[in-house]
């Protein structure tokens, strides 16, 4: 490789240039503007690290992140850490930038709802009042996020239901109205959760030991770990471990690990060509047949049909985008 003057670049410089090009291909972000002050950013990454932008973030801007697959870890300037796992929502301010971002599984898939509060508040309130007669207090949600340094909503079943429509409608212009309604529901849910937790005088997500338990389970989801082994590892009684985990995450340890395994398997089905027999043991199932039964119970389709349906929908979406582009031209 040569520079503009025709001299060869040092090997180290070539390696850095190659790494930057590779990082760009490993991380994609698709932005969809829904209305003034409200946008969705769909993330797909296959890398362990993420760079930080140097541009100062705008004030009074909310970020609500939903993790679909992988783990999203942030370390802040004061040394605190936050890890988002599949099914969880993080509510924060854009100005509360982490010092570093890390993806322990070298992959991540999710969506971020970005709301410029001064710009979006009037239109959002008009929409919500028309539908329900209520209004949103985004200023209170901003204050809650600022006071807590960001917080996480761990009720995974409710979160997945809220965000499922966003992924299904992503990129489809005719579904913008549906997306706007779902955004209203997500914001209302976040406001209600923040208000309820503040009134109780605590944030359920402050149990750092349970964060460590959850991260350990996620990192070893392919292994069979008994409650006794887990309790001994973290120096707790089995009763205390069960109670504190349920209080922190709104679900039992068993249900959490089953959901995490199945969501990890679904991500592998959609992003790789690996066989079902290959995926099953990686996510903790001893046989492909048992895995297929549990997968169908959770997602409504066996693994093979789930992959085929997703591929078919992807092709339809690509054809619709091509048709739309040709009409614009």
Structure description:
This protein is of the alpha+beta class and 329 residues long. The protein is built from 12 helices and 10 strands. It has helices spanning 11-26, 117-132, 138-148, 156-169, 176-199, 208-219, 227-233, 238-249, 253-271, 276-282, 288-299, 303-328; strands at 27-35, 38-45, 49-50, 61-70, 72-75, 81-84, 89-93, 100-102, 108-116, 151-153. Helix 3 (138-148) crosses helix 5 (176-199) and helix 4 packs antiparallel against helix 5. Mean pLDDT is 80; it is low at 1-9, 19-25, 201-205 and 324-329.
Q: What is the spatial order of strands in the main beta sheet?
A: 1-2-9-4-7-10
Helical content class:
40-55%
> Number of helix segments?
12
CATH class designation of the largest domain: Mainly Beta
Question: Which fold does the CATH topology of the largest domain refer to?
Answer: Jelly Rolls
**Radius of gyration over all CA atoms, rounded:** 22 Å
The CATH homologous superfamily name of the largest domain equals Jelly Rolls
The gross shape turns out to be: globular
Biggest pleated sheet: 6 strands, antiparallel
Mean pLDDT: 80
Descriptive tags:
329 residues; alpha+beta; Jelly Rolls; Arc Repressor Mutant, subunit A; 2 domains; six-stranded antiparallel sheet; four-stranded antiparallel sheet; 12 helices; 10 strands; 53% helix; globular; disordered N terminus; disordered C terminus
Write the layout of secondary structure elements.
Layout: H1 11-26, E1 27-35, E2 38-45, E3 49-50, E4 61-70, E5 72-75, E6 81-84, E7 89-93, E8 100-102, E9 108-116, H2 117-132, H3 138-148, E10 151-153, H4 156-169, H5 176-199, H6 208-219, H7 227-233, H8 238-249, H9 253-271, H10 276-282, H11 288-299, H12 303-328
Antiparallel strand pairs: 1-2, 2-9, 3-8, 4-7, 4-9, 5-6, 5-8, 7-10
Helix pairs in contact: 3-5, 4-5
